[in-house]
């Protein structure tokens, strides 16, 4: 065998044990306790928030993993009708690589397509929650409520995170949250910690349900507690 094909240095027993221990801490899809669809508007105005969400998602996974593990599907739209849905993954690093490979492009919103896709996924496998991050809405509001109704029948709450102050988007996002028994929350463009807390709360709900979210919210307080209260109707 040519020397070029040989490993530069044989792996020690310690190295192998360390690798196996690290791998054992990453849940497989079969082991993941919850599933969450993470959908983001990737039209041009969204690049700053996309970058923040890419940095934050590792924390979201870590917290969810502590209560049972989470599988995530990344969904985004951009440009002239581009729409992408990734495979499910239970790995924060895999999701992070996928997100870092995406650049935002000018285009129109496709929230209705996101809702229809989420309903399609939920008809095949249990989906704990849909998370949507966006700042605008340029589609049919009637269609949006119809798709939200399908999600409601499938038991999938929508966490609608709204950046900015577009009143049209606010009205539609709030109605989607109401119909699906989810939650609408507005955050500031510079509030990375706020977005992290809200995304983590959604991941906890998808993994452990209302009880897990309530326990987490009691510890965190602030926006997370307000979000949990809205989901429980308080």
What does this structure look like?
The chain has 234 residues and is an alpha/beta fold. Helices cover 50% and strands 16% of the residues. It has a 6-stranded mixed sheet with strand order 3-2-1-4-5-6, sandwiched between helices. Helix 6 (167-180) links the parallel strand 5 and strand 6 (183-187). The longest helix has 29 residues, at 192-220.
Explain the layout of strands and helices.
Elements: H1 13-24, E1 34-41, H2 47-65, E2 70-78, E3 82-85, H3 92-100, H4 111-122, E4 129-134, H5 141-153, E5 158-163, H6 167-180, E6 183-187, H7 192-220, H8 222-231
Parallel strand pairs: 1-2, 1-4, 4-5, 5-6
Antiparallel strand pairs: 2-3
Strand residue content: 15-25%
The helix/strand order is HEHEEHHEHEHEHH
**What is the number of E strands?**
6
Q: Could you name the CATH topology?
A: Rossmann fold
Low-confidence stretches: 1-9, 19-26
Task: Give me the number of helical elements.
Answer: 8
CATH superfamily: von Willebrand factor, type A domain
Largest sheet: 6 strands, mixed
Notable characteristics:
234 residues; alpha/beta; Rossmann fold; 6-stranded mixed β-sheet; 6 strands; globular; disordered N terminus
